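Can't attach files on this board, so I'm pasting raw text. These are the components:
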Amino acid sequence: MSVAPETVWEPKIIGFFCNWCSYAGADLAGVSRINYPPNVRIIRVPCSSRINPYLVLRAFQHGADGILISG
Amino acid sequence: MPRIGVFVCWCGSNIGGVIDCPKLAADAGELPGVVLSTEYKYMCSEPGQNSIIQAIRDHRLDRVVVASCSPRLHEETFRKTLARAGLNPYLFEMANIREHCTWVHNKEPEKAQVKSLALVSRAVAKANLLEPLFPSSIPMTKRCLVIGGGIAGIQAALDVADAGHEVILVEKEPTIGGNMVKLDKTFPTLDCSACISTPKMVSVSTHPNITLYTYSEVAGVDGYIGNFEVTIRRKASYVDHSECTGCGDCQTKCPTKVPSEFNLGLSTRKAIYIPFPQAVPNKPVIDAANCRYFTTGKCKVCQKICTTEAIDYEQQDTVITEKVGAIVVATGYQLFDWAAAYGEYGYGRYPDVVTGMHFERLVNAAGPTGGKIQRPSDQSEPKTVVFIKCVGSRDPAKGKEYCSRACCMYTAKHAHQVLEKIPGANVYIFYIDVRTPGKGYEEFYQRTISDGAVYVRGRVSKIYQMGDKLVVRGSDTLLGRPVEVEADMVVLASAMVSSSGIQDVARMVSVQVDKDGWLQEAHPKLRPVETHTGGVFVAGSCQGPKDIPDTVAQASAAAAKVCGLLSREELATDPMISTVNQAICTGCGLCVPACPYQAVELKTITERIPGHAPRERTVADVNSGLCQGCGACNVACRPGAMQVKGFTNDELVAEVDAICL
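---
Top answer:
Structure tokens for the assembled complex are below.
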């Protein structure tokens, strides 16, 4: 993606969320209509213990600016 | 190459009102593997689901992506849709563009549009790699364990046993009956509590499908739904109950008196004792901590008097194991330790300040006073009785934040009983609010007021002794002035709290305990008796404060759930669990300690390669009954032999790549 000079830089954040707690928490944020910035994108994992360090590095390699692991 | 169909849902205006669904569908159509991309108002509706089925047939789709709400809501729904179309239900992926996008980014629709495409790309990337999965099955042990022999445990045990399943009921006290059998009369009908609970206790002891272990505790629970292995420790009673006839001579002759637990210290019992005359089983136990023989080495009076030679001082605790398929936890409540928290009420120093449970024993015809309401200090009849509600309840500073639910009604009942049994008595009730939600409850409360009970709205700030009177000082917040009552007796409606030992039980059965110490049900409204651990159910006041009707209703509900489970021959297991590719497993064993469920073990296999001699090799092996699919082993595995089905390394990497674009 090319960034035009006048646009404000927005970080791209990838979230790895546990299905049983924080993914459900993100659902609850939705149900409660709690607005948050749209630059976080969530990947569902069965448990935070399923997250390989490799996945984190891979996300950085592919353009992520921040990783949010929650579980 | 897979043939993926993408179905974008408008969810009415929930999604369609924020982003441009036709545009999203058009953009998704460009993604690799997608052969059809379309949108519809309500994908989960009957016509929506039918359109998916039709599309699968018309376009020979072999993977389906639905972009709609959370998979926690409708993943099951759409998997069933795929199954109806003849497709493996696990060839399905969802993009959560409602909860995670349009509902939270409704003020930034353009950015929401970009994000929803990223979420759909992730789902499509994963869908490309999905494999068909097949649930396996595990056998069902058609027996049920009930922990706790109060009214909840009794009701659940009887209901399950009546349905034809074997039940094991474990109670830590020497008798079943719990708190209910101590009560005098039950509101609002004034049924005698013992008269309605003791027949049920007898039914438990005589039911052919129920095995009763009293004076026993659950020491450990292994296994999983359908296949639990329970360790039960039977405490030594020092009486051989197969020989004992329950004649009671031993407790008559026993020289040692100790305060009776059943009467809350208002009377004494012997060191060898049957807790109360209607106890089930009606056989004594020896309280070794207080028995003269056990403490001094001399006595043996009970052994000498026993004609059936049932006394056995050498008896030891025994440990037994039972296999069950389901567990009902019904460990009940106990009363809040008010004396430690309420210094202003005398820290328990004044004998005539008692709890509602003490009052139940005092007013009970089978109690220590034969049903005469007497002051514990001098056995005189109290003329002025003050009741204080919410002692420990609704008081986060000193006790618990919650309402104990039963106190308003039992206090009204106590007031009614004082006014009925003591002519000319004065009754004052200090309250915060009066809560009477229940059939016939409000009517009963109004009757108590017309009987002459004086309700004073306010808290009591101090109780002190003056002569033989207790001065109760509080405030009437309706009149806005202080109140002082010279009482003969004060009864505290102390809060219900969870039974001591609940933490141990909760840990053994892997059920969460909430902030107040009660067991956590799976859903407060829709799954009130289930827990997050499969096969474990809750009944009665271990889940929260309750009165008897609610407890019995919940116990029957738990029993219905157990019966539903035990009626199956086998259980389908979630296929999204770990699996080992033994061909590339090196047998390093790193996955074994990584597993929190003890589901991974090492085993030896024999490999036969043509042209070579057979050779033995160690590899990992997953127990599909124990594995919860968390994936800790998957991360620990260096060669990538261990994979969680549905969350494999390849799938997750593809998701990361797609979502970053």
